[in-house]
């Protein structure tokens, strides 16, 4: 009598970002029929390619082209739109809150923790009320409409102090996210002034605040200095070694005594591992990340895998000089770790042994607005237009799916031929306002 066929292995992936998407893509490509079932859980039905958010905010890329619909590309996987609340590995269950609000528990045989990172907010008065992040596509769309709406308001006000406040834009954080958002949006506002009779480029004030003594720590210091010089030539005020003390009611107070009013405060000062990890029985380090082996398994739990921003993965390219070195939280490592992770899961399912993840950082590249960039890659320092081309080529290659690559390339081509749109769709931020007003008339 033949033995009964065992049930497929249940693989549960928490998070639909870089790691979640690329792991699921790798698994659905390599898994045999009925070998395993794959379920991916994320609060959003799409993966967001975050390096393109500044260009989406500035109108260089259509926002829908920056996201990858999970259900469309993961046709052999189950996609659940839900938020993870708790991980209980001892019971092999994960508690989630589904999109309709109900709570349910998911069981698994193999778990992939890919919850990524969230914005790290400091206890600064007024930050939660006044700050705007730029980690999601919703924030990028909101920020674009918000900034252009401020130009509209400034063009119509008769109050000089209010006008000054409306035209003052503040960015806190001098990493890649902050510098790229600042540069793209400053480019957009300067371009937009040609359509306003009473706003000149010099009327707009952009301010960068960074607590460290330099910007862009991912590139060598000389390139950081060069970038500051380029920003200042564009009229952007740069405050280094300066902390933000208060943002209450839009009144910015800095640690050096500088004070000014700003209706736009963009917060990009760091990220932290998803706080859900603290509500789990998995080992986490002092920075809140899941402790991982070089093979991308959670320490002490070979049936749990992890990678990306929420994982403390040993960086084997640096551990000889620094035994505690872990891979930096960037897209370059997240994508490569995810592909390696998928291969390792397949090997273990088929009785093999996982291999260690090793990748030597290729460098970093940042866009500084249209036709401007900076790169420290392949042991070369690249500035200006060549770096901008390098930035676009690298991220276009890294963007998942041919569909999205083609759409983004078309956006860039049309933008070069007809220039970018600078119209505000501010009604999106309060779409029911006009309907409510009509109901009262």
TrEMBL record:
Keyword NAD tagged: yes
Cited InterPro entries: FAD/NAD-bd_sf, FAD/NAD-binding_dom, NDH-2
One Pfam family named in its UniProt record: Pyr_redox_2
All copies of domain FAD/NAD(P)-binding, residue ranges: 10-338
Keyword entries, A-Z: FAD, Flavoprotein, NAD, Oxidoreductase
Family according to the record: Belongs to the NADH dehydrogenase family.
Name of the protein in question: NADH dehydrogenase
Species for this entry: Amycolatopsis thermophila
């Amino acid at each position: 009598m033949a033995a009964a066929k065992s049930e497929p292995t249940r693989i549960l992936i928490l998070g639909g970002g870089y790691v979640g998407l690329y792991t699921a893509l790798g698994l659905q490509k390599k898994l045999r029929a009925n070998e395993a079932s794959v379920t991916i859980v994320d609060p959003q039905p799409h993966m967001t390619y975050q390096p393109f958010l500044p260009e989406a905010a500035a109108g260089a890329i259509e926002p829908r082209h920056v996201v990858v619909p999970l259900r469309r590309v993961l046709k052999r996987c189950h996609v659940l739109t839900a938020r993870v609340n708790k991980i209980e590995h001892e019971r092999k269950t994960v508690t989630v809150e589904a999109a309709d609000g109900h709570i349910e528990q998911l069981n698994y045989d193999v778990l992939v923790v890919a919850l990524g990172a969230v914005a790290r907010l400091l206890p600064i008065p007024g930050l939660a009320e006044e700050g705007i992040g730029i980690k999601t596509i919703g924030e990028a769309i909101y920020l674009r409409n918000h900034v252009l709406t401020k130009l509209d308001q400034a063009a119509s006000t008769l109050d000089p102090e209010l006008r000054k406040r409306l035209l003052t834009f503040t960015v806190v954080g001098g990493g890649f996210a902050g510098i790229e958002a600042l540069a793209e949006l400053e480019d957009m506002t300067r371009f937009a002034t040609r359509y306003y009779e009473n706003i000149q480029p010099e009327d707009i004030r952009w301010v960068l605040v960074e607590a460290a003594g330099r910007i862009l720590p991912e590139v060598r210091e000389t390139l950081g200095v060069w970038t500051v010089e380029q920003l200042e030539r564009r009229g952007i005020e740069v405050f280094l070694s300066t902390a933000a003390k208060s943002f209450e009611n839009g009144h910015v107070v800095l640690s050096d005594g500088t004070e000014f009013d700003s209706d736009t405060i963009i917060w990009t000062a760091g990220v932290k591992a998803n706080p859900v990890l603290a509500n789990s029985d998995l080992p986490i380090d002092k920075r809140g990340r899941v402790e991982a082996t070089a093979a991308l398994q959670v320490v002490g739990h070979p049936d749990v895998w992890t990678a990306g921003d929420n994982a403390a993965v040993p960086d084997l390219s640096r551990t000889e000089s620094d035994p505690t070195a872990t891979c930096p939280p960037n897209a370059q490592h997240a994508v490569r770790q995810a592909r390696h992770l998928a291969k390792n899961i397949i090997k273990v399912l088929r009785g093999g042994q996982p291999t260690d993840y090793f990748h030597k950082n290729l460098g970093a590249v940042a866009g500084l607005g249209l036709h401007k960039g900076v790169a420290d890659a392949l042991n070369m320092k690249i500035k200006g237009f060549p770096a901008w081309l390098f930035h676009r080529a690298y991220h276009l290659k890294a963007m998942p799916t041919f569909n999205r690559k083609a759409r983004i390339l078309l956006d860039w081509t049309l933008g070069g031929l007809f220039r970018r749109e600078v119209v505000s769709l501010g009604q999106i931020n309060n779409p029911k306002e006009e309907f409510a007003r009509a109901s009262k008339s």
